[in-house]
């Protein structure tokens, strides 16, 4: 049996209920994982609240986690029992002690990365990679603006962009978060509650913009 959290009905945190479920054997292309860490992301709230429809009744939320492989399906050759793995993306179901998941969704965790880090940064890390290398390849000397620079994704984007040599202007929602954004590498931090922040961005970049 495996303990899992289900969305009993759309609503607030109180609709999450702990239930025991039997973990069936993995399908031919799946692996079974004993999870050690799960990532909690804002998209989970969208499904729990009903803003996004549940894929099935009393769904188990969560799109990110990491743990140890305990069993593999008959077609799986890339992973074996005992491997440390992490994942993000569909199918949802991370809020559980154990789960089955397609092997194609997994990566093996390198020896130098601890399971907690891997399981809590996959979604944000891949999003940051897409933004900085695919949507637009950020280069040394670029000015970029990172909204919510003190948040989980914002800090990763800010640190990564700074390592690439970019100059980062961050925004935060409160003065208390300014220090966090600066610690991540933002050279300038503005409050997005200040209606004049676009003008300040132009001033900082001497009219160049971001």
TrEMBL record:
Has UniProt tagged this entry with the keyword Zinc-finger? Answer: no
Query: From what superkingdom does this record's organism come?
Result: Bacteria
Q: Which SMART domains match?
A: PKS_ER
What's in the keyword line of the UniProt record?
NADP, Oxidoreductase
Q: Name one GO molecular function term.
A: NADPH binding
GO annotations of cellular component type: cytosol
The record ties this protein, via InterPro entries, to: ADH-like_C, ADH-like_N, ER, GroES-like_sf, NAD(P)-bd_dom_sf
**Does this entry carry the keyword Chloroplast?**
no
Q: Please state every residue range assigned to the domain named Enoyl reductase (ER).
A: 11-210
Q: Which Pfam families did the record assign?
A: ADH_N, ADH_zinc_N
Q: What is this protein called?
A: Alcohol dehydrogenase
């Amino acid at each position: 049996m495996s303990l899992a959290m289900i969305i009993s009905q759309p609503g607030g945190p109180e609709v999450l209920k702990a239930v025991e479920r039997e973990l069936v054997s993995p399908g031919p292309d799946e692996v079974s994982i004993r999870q050690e860490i799960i990532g909690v992301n804002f998209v989970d709230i969208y499904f729990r609240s009903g803003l996004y429809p549940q894929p099935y009744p009393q769904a188990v939320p969560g799109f990110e986690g990491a743990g140890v492989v305990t069993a593999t399906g008959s077609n799986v050759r890339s992973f074996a029992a005992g491997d440390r793995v992490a994942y993000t993306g569909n199918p949802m179901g991370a809020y559980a002690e154990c789960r089955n998941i397609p092997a194609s969704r997994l990566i093996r965790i390198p020896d130098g990365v601890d399971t907690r880090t891997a399981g809590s940064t996959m979604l944000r890390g891949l999003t940051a990679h897409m933004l900085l290398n695919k949507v637009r390849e950020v280069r040394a000397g670029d000015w970029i603006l990172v909204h919510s620079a003190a948040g989980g994704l914002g800090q990763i984007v800010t640190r990564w962009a700074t390592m690439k040599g970019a100059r980062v202007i961050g925004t935060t929602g409160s003065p208390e978060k300014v220090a966090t954004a600066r610690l991540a590498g933002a050279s300038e931090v503005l409050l997005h509650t200040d209606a004049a922040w676009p003008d300040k961005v132009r001033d900082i970049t001497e009219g160049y913009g971001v």
